[in-house]
Write a structure and sequence with these properties.
Strand content: 25-35%
Shape: globular
Number of domains: 1
Distance between the termini: 17 Å
Order of helices and strands: EEHHEHEEHEHEEEE
Number of strands: 10
Strand order of the largest sheet: 5-4-3-6-1-7-10-9
Largest sheet: 8 strands, mixed
CATH topology: Dihydrofolate Reductase, subunit A
Radius of gyration: 16 Å
CATH superfamily: Dihydrofolate Reductase, subunit A
Structural class: alpha/beta
CATH class: Alpha Beta
CATH architecture: 3-Layer(aba) Sandwich
Oligomer: single chain
Length: about 190
């Protein structure tokens, strides 16, 4: 069975974006970019991969699932297929289908993820956002959190669920990057 990995950057106080959805306060340093290029190259948008000289296809993920707000910055920049090297799904009930043949808009992210997990392939990357992560919380198998050394104070939480749930995860890897950021991998503890 394929795993769903929520790979996300967040502040020390648990926010993935400011209240307006912006994330320009994250200090994306050379160390962070080098880490991503080496360990998670498929999570770099297609146009950024070329700019950074990243040619490695990556082997962790072959599919990305993102929320409408996560997809919006690409659309605002005129990019309709930000991860052309992956199968792309956008969870939305408001976006029209068919804006790009490489991007599938789905109104039911839970059904989508459950179906994708049954297919053969590499991992499924949950790119965000917080409400989508909350809706898919029971399906998340792994959390990979890039924690940036910054406090935001308010914003969009990493996980915004409609109900309180205590799901156990175990730390399976942790790294400190130059500049004080950390990357921690948490794997779902299953009984």
């Amino acid at each position: 069975m394929r795993a769903l990995t929520y790979y996300v950057g967040m502040s020390l106080d648990g926010y993935i974006a400011a209240p307006d959805g912006s994330a320009d306060f994250f200090p994306v340093t050379r160390a962070v970019l080098d880490f991503i290029a080496a360990e998670y190259p498929e999570t770099l948008p297609s146009h950024v991969r070329a700019h950074l000289g990243v040619t490695a296809p990556g082997s962790r993920f072959d599919t990305v699932v993102m929320g409408r707000a996560t997809y919006a910055p690409a659309l605002q920049a005129g990019i309709t297929s930000p991860y052309a090297h992956l199968r792309q799904y956008v969870a939305s009930t408001t976006l029209p289908a068919g804006s790009d043949p490489q991007v599938t808009v789905v109104p039911d992210p839970l059904g989508l993820v459950r179906r994708l997990k049954q297919e053969d392939g590499a991992g499924i990357w949950l790119a965000g956002g917080g409400r989508l992560a909350g809706a898919l919380l029971d399906e998340i198998d792994e959390l990979v959190i890039k924690r940036y050394p910054v406090v935001v104070g308010a914003g969009i939480p990493a996980i915004a669920a409609d109900h309180a749930t205590a799901l156990p995860f175990e730390i399976t890897d942790e790294r400190t990057l130059v500049g004080g950021g950390t990357v921690t991998t948490h794997t779902r503890a299953r009984a």
